Amino acid sequence: MAQTLAIVDDEADLLEALEDYFSAAGFDVIAADGAAAFRTAVEGRRIHAAILDITMPGEDGLSLARWIKAQGPVGLILATALGRPIDRVVGLDIGADDYVVKPYDLRELQARLRSVIRRVADLQPDPVAGVLIGAPPTAVTARIGALALDPQRRSLVHPSGATASLSTAEYEVLETLLARAGRIVSRQTLVETGTADDRDASDRAIDVRIARLRKKITTLDPASGALLRTVRGEGYILDT
After folding, report:
1. Three-state secondary structure call for residue 62
2. Angle, to 10 degrees, between the axis of helix 203-220 and the axis of helix 168-179?
3. Beta-strand (E) ranges in 142-214?
4. For residue range 142-183, what is the model confidence (pLDDT) as tens digits?
5. Which of 83, 216, 217, 220 could form a disulfide with 101 if both were Cys (CB 3.0 to 4.6 A apart)?
6. Could you give the CA distance from residue 25 to residue 168 in angstroms, rounded to a whole number?
7. Which letter, b or e, does each residue of 130-139 get, where b requires 16 or more Cβ atoms within 10 Å of its Cβ?
8. How much is the pTM?
9. 113 in Cβ contact with 51 (< 8 Å)
């Protein structure tokens, strides 16, 4: 089954070239020349990844990226001719998986795209079919002991109503552990499934994130906190 790739760019020639290239590479491509056209084209369809131009008339790529990420774990690459550091910071902060500056080499872009798709596959509800766009979001997608995970607010919720907000890094770690619940997850895996900015993160950085996450879980419910365990020399495991 071909993976579905959405491409949004207001440069007609570039959009056509990208559509031809990735179609030839085996992708089912949805090409749109702006955010409005994209929203219409993908409604009710499943996609695996998207390449978005940041600078477009009307709704820009950053706004569109926020909307896509709210739908589910879609692999997301942002592209811009500006190369401004602030664009990269904002893009990664809202959940982009990678970032390229125009003009880019198509072979490199394809390699980055396939890497992104591999990293997000385990986080998708159906890795083969992709993420359904426009589907109503579920309030809770997983539980950690007595606690519920609210993905819309990125918070943990106790039955009493008490909550704990998670940082982006903590949420990504928890997502990865939940996707592999009951299995040991190495520190390297936690690095590789983070944002593009995390690729050089150290083992110590992962340990710190785990410690903060465990503290928040334990504060809400000590028994649930005990479900996040360290396996010495191997990594971490989450028993749900």
Report:
1. helix
2. 90
3. 142-144, 147-150, 155-157, 163-165
4. 889 999 888 777 888 888 878 888 888 888 889 889 888 899
5. 83
6. 33
7. bbbbeeeeee
8. 0.56
9. yes
